Structures are given as structure tokens and as C-alpha cells.
Amino acid sequence: MLNRRTFHRAVAGAAALVVAPGLRAQGDRILLAQSAPFTGPAAQLGIQFHQGARLCFEQLNAQGGVHRRSIELVRLDDGYEPDRCAENTRKLLADDPLALFGYIGTPTSLAALPLATAAKAPFFAPFTGAMGLRQPFNRYAFHVRASYNDETALIVRQLTSLGLKKIAVFWQNDAYGKAGLDGVQLALAAQNLKPVAQATVERNSVNVAQAVKTLVAAQPDAVVQISAYKSCAAFIRAARAAGYGGTFYNVSFVGTQALADELGKDGAGVVVSQVVPSPYSAAKPITREFIEAVKKGGAGYHANFSSMEGYLAARVMIDGLRRAGAGKPTRDGLIAGLEAIGNEDFGGFNVTFSAADHVASKFVELSMLTGDGRVRT
Fold first, then answer.
1. Largest CA distance in the chain
2. Which of 31, 91, 199, 371 has its CA 20 to 30 A from that of 319?
3. What is the pLDDT of residues 217-275, one digit of tens each?
4. Do 244 and 139 belong to one domain?
């Protein structure tokens, strides 16, 4: 079994939104629009990402904005449901935002991206690592985070390097879960392995009883989980209650702090892959900048991996807006500005964009929950 010692040795309050009619990305305002879960079992993912982005934009606005224009990020709640997300996206696009920003999830982003593409609106920094949103290349889609293939490859390398080869997969029965499952299977196939078992849970559900029965019976060394924090926490608790003593691995979309909060002391030893630098370690300049921003932001802001990702996405967007020039912001101008970033170091987080490549990063590392609400990398 992988314990914390082996691991280290081997490797809220979001502001209320009103989408006011007539808002436009013109004059002294740059309008960005977001559909995300702000209620329901995945709510913390939307809340935390939005907090981090809003923190960055508000502090920039207090300094005069970009080319003397303030950035406004409006949002609508989709509850992590694709149909609601598509409806929200139509409403948001009707208000002519400069870009869609920070959508949360694979099934929702897959519903929204065709609408953004048809409107020729940049679809920037979705909180998903699904390959289906990255391939084939889409001029309007920009990804700041690494892919689920990158995350699952690291997870499988870590497990097999420790001699743990009986790997099961617990996955959400939708495009997100399938994307993660595909990544695990691809990484295992490279070592002539296959999952010893797999089982699903429905999106926005914690009905995990059958999945627990199926996977515990297979006696895997480890379970890779591809779902959101509520269902993953429910599975971990139920599997342990059923006598399972192996290790649990999650990809970043789970929502690390939300998972830690759900599990409490039961989180000790649970591993999560991460696609942004740790918000708890001051080793990188971007983290020091983020922590200082959170302190200045006040009680409504919290440092965690999801808010860190929102903050980083906002930082990269701001850089693209600056490179787009001082004239009236346009969607084509923003695309050109983002592609002009080239290879840039954002305080220890490297971003690479070009006209031929809109996937900024392959950064992945592993973290572990400690059982006292903290996360170690």
C-alpha cells in the first residue's frame, strides 16, 4: 500500500451575478463571460475558479485595467449540466462578450465550444483536460492546463514504479469520465497492462454502492478516480467501509480542497494530480503573488488549487489583452494577442501559445491529502 512516507519518498463566497442587458466589450469595459456550476454537487469547482479569476481582474482594475479598460467577468450557473450550459452560452453570447472564459467541466465545455466557434468567440481556459476539446485544433479554443492524458500518464507511472500494477478505474459516466478512462487505458497499454476493473457513477450523483461492490471485489492495488469531489468522497468512504485498503488517485478536476473538506480525516493518503503550482508553497513567484493577492482580497478569497487555476487563467488572459494592442478590443485581436505570447514564464509557470498550438502547458505533479485539511506536494 502507498502511504504518505512512501509517496514523498517516491515522487464560497463568489459575488452575485446579474448579466445585465446591453453589456458590450467596448468603451471602458472588456466583457468576459462564464458558465459554470455555482450550485449543486460540483459547485465548489465553479465558485473557487471564479474567485481566483475575479481576484486577479479586480486588482488589475484597481490599477487602471488593460489599456485603461476594466475587465468585467459575468457568470451564469449551469449546475454542471450540459443542456443548461448550452442555454447559458447562447444568452451570454447574445451580450457580445469579447471571450468565453473559465467554463467548468468536459460535458459542459463540449456543449459550449461549438456555439463559441460558430460565434467566432474565443473559448479560453476551460477547466478540463479532455482531448476532445483539444483535438482537432480549433482556432477559438485556448487551454491553459495540461490534459487528462498528461495527468493519468503521471499517475500510472507513479503506481507502476512502486510495483502497483492492479489498477482499477472509477469514472463518471459522461464525456469527462470517459476522457479520464481513455487516458488511464492509454498509459497502461504502454506498459502492456489493462485496468483490472472499472465502474461508473452518474454525473451529479453519489450513488456509488454498485461501483464499490464491483471494484472492491477485484482487489486492486489502487483505484484511479475520474469524477467530482462529492462522488469521489462517497466512493472512498464506502470502499474503505467495505474493507478496501488500497490507494486512491484522482485527477485535478476532482477539486482538491473540496475533496479534502468532504473527507476530513478520511482524506489522509489520497493522491491528486495537479496542473498548476501549489498555492501552499511559496517556492514559485506566481504562488507568492497569488498568496499576496488573496491576503489583500480579504475574507471572501481563499487559496486553493482551483482558485489558483482561475488566477493563472486570468493572468494569461490579461497578457493576451495587453499584446492585442490599445485599440478597441476585438475577438480577432485577442486571438492574435494570445498567440503572440509565444513561450512566456508566468512566475514559474511556463505558458506556450502560438498560431499552431493553443495548449499552453503540460505541467503536472502529484499531491497528497494529509487528513487535517492540508495538501502536500
1. 63
2. 91
3. 999 999 999 999 999 999 999 999 999 999 999 999 999 999 999 999 999 999 999 99
4. no
Which structural domain range is residue 41 located in? 12-146+283-353
- Do residue 159 and residue 266 come from a single domain? yes
Residue ranges with strand state E in the chain: 29-36, 70-77, 99-101, 123-124, 141-142, 167-172, 197-201, 222-226, 247-250, 271-274, 342-346, 349-353, 365-369, 375-376
List the end-to-end C-alpha distance of the chain, in Å, as a whole number.
19
pTM over 0.90: yes
| CA atoms of 39 and 95, how far apart (whole Å) | 23
7, part of any domain = no
Residue 322 to residue 331: CA distance in whole angstroms: 13
Helix (H, G, I), strand (E, B) or coil at 31: strand
- Going by C-alpha positions, the residue among 250, 232, 228, 159 that lies closest to residue 196 is 159
CATH of the domain at 55: 3.40.50.2300
